Structure formats: structure tokens, C-alpha cells
Amino acid sequence: MATNSTLKNQIANKKQGNNQVGKAQGTTMKQLLASPAVMNRFEEVLGKRANQFTASILGLYNSEKMLQKAEPMSVISSAMIAATLDLPVDKNLGYAWIVPYGGKAQFQMGYKGYIQLALRTGQYRNINVIEVYEGELKSFNRLTEEIELDFEGRKSDKVIGYTGFFELLNGFRKTVYWSKEDVEKHKKKFSKSDFGWKNDWDAMAKKTVIRNMLNKWGILSIDMQKGMVEDGKDPIELNEDDVSSDVIDADFSEVQTEQPETEFSVEQ
């Protein structure tokens, strides 16, 4: 339990540099996740799965040095968004990510997250997004968006583009195709960070394609709409008054930094 003396020491340590801040944050995240107020929030959303989910948050936090530089409260807030959408935050699964931007953590959906939320609507018979390799693309009509692919014609492992497809239960079908150059142009125009792209370019490209496709042509449930709004949005902090005072310290104060634009802005 933090005392007035320890709080004063933490404030003094904070002034000594970012390294000291990182260490203080690393030792307080476990306390923060274990606090009754935070646990109650997750239990309200996840029920008996709350302990497992908070353990995954702590595991992610401890394994990511860059994330440890972000405000712990913003990490919790980002994870809470994933919890409300019932998406795991394990980065290896690719459903949702918690990524650092300018001293704060930010929630981002993965392309698998979009597929998962679409399937939960019960309106989609099929939905997918894949890479298109050199030699597979035979033709693509930009007006009708009809595409002809020959998977037997693959010449190499070079990815030349990405195609998304869905079919609704009512029979409506949609296919879109983005060349790799189109994705790169979109990235340069809308993405202010290379964080996700540097780690998995293909996954981010698929996300770009499927998000744009669903936004323009898909049936969006309330959760899908929420996911699109929250994806890449500036983090919203949990109210510090809601968390027990014995785990709130100087490291949770708001950092005044300029926030980047959202990772993806959907083109109209």
C-alpha cells in the first residue's frame, strides 16, 4: 500500500527521467489491476473470465517495453474497450492490440477482430480477406469490382495486393481489391505511426481493406460501430476517482502530449 512518504518519493523519482518512470509503472500495474474498482469493472463486463483477461493484460504489459512507457491508466482504459467488445488482447491472436502513442496506450482492432464482430451479427454467410500473390490476379474491374483470380497461377511469394469478400445471408455479395501500392498510399495519408505496420505489414493491410469494405458495404452491428469508432481513437482515461487511492500515484497523472491522428480514417 502506498503511503504519503512513498508517493513523495515517486514524485521525486519521476523528475529524474523516463527510466525511473518506467520502473515505477512496471511495479504498479499489478496493483492497479488488482484494485477492487478496476476488477469490478472487468467483472461487470466479463464475469468469471475477468481474472484471465486481466492476467493477459499484465502479461502483455510486462512483455512490451514500449507499452511500459505509456500511462498505466490508459493501458487499462484501452483493455476495457477490448473487454466490452469481447476481444482478446493477446497480440499473437490478432483480434485487438494495445499500442503506445505519445505516452499513452491506444486500442486498435485487428482484421480478425472485424471478422469476428461481423460474424456475431448473424448476417454474414462468409467473410474473409487474403493476400493476392504475383500471377494470381487475372482481372479486376474498378467500376463493378468484379475480380478474377487464379490461385493455380501463382508465380512467387511476392504479394501484389489484398482482396476482401463477404456474402450476406440475403444473398448480397461484395468483393474489393486493393493493390499493395493503394494500401501504401492509404498508410502514408492516414497513419501517423509505423508501430503496427513495422510489426506486421500484411495484417495492417488486411485490416485497412476489410475495415473500408465493411464501412462502405457491410451490415454494422452496434459492437461493430463501436469498434470502428474506438479503433485508433485517442485514449479516454478511466476516472482516477473510481480507483482505490492506495494504488493511485504520481505516475498516473495525465501527460500533456500532442496525440496523433487516428491510425485509420475511412475514406468516403
Beta-strand proportion: 15-25%
Low-pLDDT stretches are: 14-27, 234-268
How many strand units? 7
Helix content: 40-55%
Helical segment tally? 10
Structural features:
268 residues; alpha+beta; 3-stranded antiparallel β-sheet; 10 helices; 17% strand; globular; disordered C terminus
Summarize the model shown.
This protein is of the alpha+beta class and 268 residues long. It contains 10 helices and 7 strands.
3D structure, described in words:
- By secondary structure, this protein is of the alpha+beta class.
- Helix content is 44%, strand content 17%.
- It has ten helices and seven strands.
- It has a three-stranded antiparallel beta sheet with strand order 3-6-7. Strands 1-2 form a two-stranded antiparallel ribbon.
- Helix 3 packs parallel to helix 5.
- The longest helix has 17 residues.
- The chain is globular, with a radius of gyration of 21 Å.
- 32% of the residues are buried.
Write the layout of secondary structure elements.
Blueprint: H1 4-14, H2 18-34, H3 36-46, H4 50-63, H5 72-84, E1 96-101, E2 104-109, H6 111-120, E3 124-133, E4 137-140, E5 147-149, E6 159-168, E7 173-179, H7 180-190, H8 195-199, H9 201-217, H10 222-230
Helix pairs in contact: 2-4, 3-4, 3-5, 6-9
